[in-house]
Design a protein that fits this description.
Number of strands: 9
Strand order of the largest sheet: 4-5-6-7-8
Oligomer: single chain
CATH superfamily: Lipoprotein localisation LolA/LolB/LppX
Largest sheet: 5 strands, antiparallel
Radius of gyration: 15 Å
């Protein structure tokens, strides 16, 4: 359907052509990336290969991360504060060490897209 998820070690991009919105998340530093996403959750629980984060203060009040037996990301489910439904992204057929050039991960969204900086760090 044209959606894109791309990361190059510095930025994580996700683009939704149906809404013409691109999210650009910093992956380095003390306020960006996974630290910015996971920091500040009052409740962090794990069971097997599932990690569940909950907070009434964060933009995403609940995040559930599932890993494969090889500790690769299998799915992530994010529920916005006050929302009835959640966004779920599932991954399959992941291959590693394919020798791909790093330049293919430098994503540039269409010029008509609205860009949201660090959307995973936003708080309500």
């Amino acid at each position: 359907d044209g959606r894109v998820i791309s990361a190059n070690g510095r930025h994580l991009w996700f683009y939704n052509p149906a809404r013409a919105i691109a999210g650009k998340q910093d992956l380095k530093g003390g306020t960006g990336g996974l630290y910015g996403l996971l920091n500040g959750y009052e409740s962090v629980t794990s069971s097997g290969r599932t990690l569940k984060l909950q907070s009434s203060k964060k933009y995403y009040e609940e995040i559930i991360i599932n890993l494969t037996p090889n500790n690769m990301l299998q799915s992530i489910r994010m529920k916005r504060k006050g929302a009835d439904s959640a966004i779920e992204i599932s991954f399959s057929g992941i291959q590693t060490n394919l020798g791909l050039p790093s330049s293919i991960f430098n994503y540039h969204p269409p010029s008509s897209a609205q860009i949201v900086e660090n959307p995973l760090n936003q708080r309500e």
